From TrEMBL:
Source organism of this protein record: Quercus rubra (Northern red oak)
Keywords tagged on the record: Repeat
Domain of life: Eukaryota
InterPro entries: PPR/CCM1_RNA-binding (IPR051222), PPR_rpt (IPR002885), TPR-like_helical_dom_sf (IPR011990)
Region described as Disordered: 1-64
Skewed-composition ranges (Low complexity): 9-22, 40-51
Keyword Coiled coil appears in the UniProt entry: no
PPR repeat boundaries on the chain: 272-308, 351-385, 386-420
Protein name: Pentatricopeptide repeat-containing protein
Length: 521
């Protein structure tokens, strides 16, 4: 696009001669109307002169496995060929492209806007200019994300003539301007949408606000909403977008104000789950005082027949875990499951991460009974424990000396193809030996040496010595020999105790053979 002497956005001017996207279409291919990004500089309206951020990191074909050979070759040509040689290089391949090929190549070529546009034009000749709307939107997006706004608007102009424009096109433009620190241009784009046949309604408004909030500029989004709400009435999604923005920016004060505005404007609504979710999460993350405020609001929501979503429960349970507040976690858990099963307008079910959190919390607080009940409950709900959950429960069963329950957990764990971590194995061997349950101690030791190669020496020596002390000399010798064969160090102290036991049992030859193996390994 050429420069505008009046310093107005070309697509915003009332002068048809200056409004470049309104020019009559040329007679050649639509894609040829896109100006060359290499020679087209981004527009610089007077409203904003901020320097753009560092260019985003784009996906590359080099990072994408299992690409079709054709797509990979086309991406490689775009990435390694000068723009003025692209056409010839592409033609030399003899490749015939489909709409899907064009889309896939463009998605992986954002880092090369000039060659990508040349590729798009070249494909247009093969496809009789029948590019998909998605491919056009990708061109608009890759140009915008590279701050090549003149070329981007050329593409929009061509899309308008082809009747391919949609809200998705403008959502991309909003995002590109905001990322480039040109929020005012995003707003001006919203103001002229109707000139391009796209309704300037609440859905479009929410698309603009979302782009602004995603970039950490929620205050700008709120300011624009205040200016626009006389023309466009905000809906639930509008406030959910703003509240999520404040959540991401950890701004409790402004989140409260937006929440109050929402209640005044649209009241309580059971369908407004994302808004409640974000606001309650913002409160919980802010600190202990706000946590109490969040719980009070949660109960108010329930009274109104409204509920937050899964995110709130996750964050709230994590907060309870950090505070070791088993009582608070139990209340939230009970409400979550009871209200869900009552059939109210609430459809949150705990996931694996949440079960892990509460099981760990109850174990930490010494309530292994509740933790075990939760383990059984999650299986009934179709969620299966992972290694972390089993290890936590196994560890605390051992520490609380509930060895029978620990054995049940261990057997279930192994049955489901998990094993205790090395530290838990060591703890288990020690715990079972202290209770003279040598059979389980040996079982854990076998599990340990089958799955771990280090940190075995202390536990192995303990097992051998304790077996000797329990008058299980044959087993003690057996596992000492096995340790030697596995090159796990048998200490001289352990060997000395075995010698005492074997001499007392008049089995000197057994000791001599054991010593010989020990000496030469």
């Amino acid at each position: 696009m050429g420069k505008n002497k009046n310093n107005k956005r070309p697509y915003y001017s009332n002068n048809n001669n200056n409004n470049r996207p309104s020019k009559s279409p040329k007679k050649h291919h639509p894609s040829s109307n896109i100006s060359n990004p290499k020679t087209s500089s981004p527009s610089q309206p007077q409203q904003q002169q901020q320097q753009p951020k560092k260019r985003p990191t784009f996906s590359s074909y080099l990072d994408t496995p299992n690409l079709p050979p054709k797509v990979k070759l086309l991406c490689e040509i775009i990435a390694t060929t000068q723009s003025n040689s692209i056409d010839a290089s592409l033609t030399d391949t003899g490749i015939r492209v489909t709409q899907a090929d064009v889309e896939q190549v463009l998605k992986l070529s954002y880092s090369f806007p000039g060659p990508s546009v040349k590729f798009f034009r070249w494909c247009g000749h093969q496809l009789n200019d029948d590019h998909s709307p998605y491919a056009w939107n990708l061109v608009v997006d890759l140009l915008g994300k590279n701050s090549l706004f003149d070329a981007m608007w050329d593409a929009v102009k061509s899309m308008k003539r082809e009747r391919l424009l949609s809200l998705a096109t403008f959502a991309s433009i909003f995002s590109s301007y905001v990322i480039a620190e040109r929020v005012q241009d995003a707003v001006l784009t919203f103001e002229v949408m109707e000139q391009y046949g796209i309704p300037r309604d609440v859905v479009a408004l929410n698309s603009l606000l979302s782009a602004i909030c995603r970039d950490g500029k929620t205050i700008n989004a709120v300011e624009f909403l205040h200016a626009a709400q006389d023309r466009i009435r905000p809906d639930m999604d509008t406030y959910a977008i703003l509240l999520e923005g404040w959540e991401n920016e950890s701004n409790v004060v402004r989140a409260r104000k937006t929440f109050d505005d929402m209640l005044f404007d649209i009241g309580w609504d059971p369908n407004n789950v994302p808004a409640y979710d974000s606001f309650l999460t913002t409160l919980i993350k802010a600190g202990p005082d706000e946590f109490d405020e969040a719980l009070k609001l949660f109960h108010t929501l329930r009274e109104k027949g409204c509920y937050p979503g899964l995110k709130f429960f996750k964050v709230a349970l994590e907060a309870c875990s950090k505070k070791r507040d088993a009582r608070g976690a139990a209340m939230l858990w009970d409400v979550m499951l009871r209200d869900r099963d009552r059939g109210v307008a609430f459809h949150v079910s705990p996931d694996l991460e949440m079960y892990s959190c509460v099981i760990t919390l109850f174990c930490t607080c010494g309530d292994t009974d509740t933790a075990k009940k939760l383990l059984d409950e999650m299986v009934l709900n179709g969620i299966f424990p992972n290694s972390k959950i089993y290890n936590v429960l196994f560890q605390f069963m051992l520490k609380s000396k509930r060895l029978r329950d620990a054995t049940v957990v261990f057997n279930e764990m192994v049955k489901n193809e998990f094993v205790p971590d090395c530290a838990n194995c060591a703890l288990a061997v020690r715990s079972y030996l202290n209770s003279t349950e040598y059979v389980m101690a040996i079982k854990i030791w076998k599990c340990m040496i089958e799955n771990y190669d280090s940190d075995l020496e202390e536990t192995g020596n303990r097992l051998v010595v304790e077996l000797r002390d329990m008058n299980r000399l044959p087993e003690a010798v057996k596992y000492a020999e096995d340790m030697i064969a596995r090159r796990i160090k048998v200490s001289s102290s352990t060997l000395s105790k075995l010698r005492e036991g074997l001499n007392k049992a008049r089995k000197t030859l057994v000791y001599d053979e054991l010593f010989r193996k020990w000496k030469y390994h």
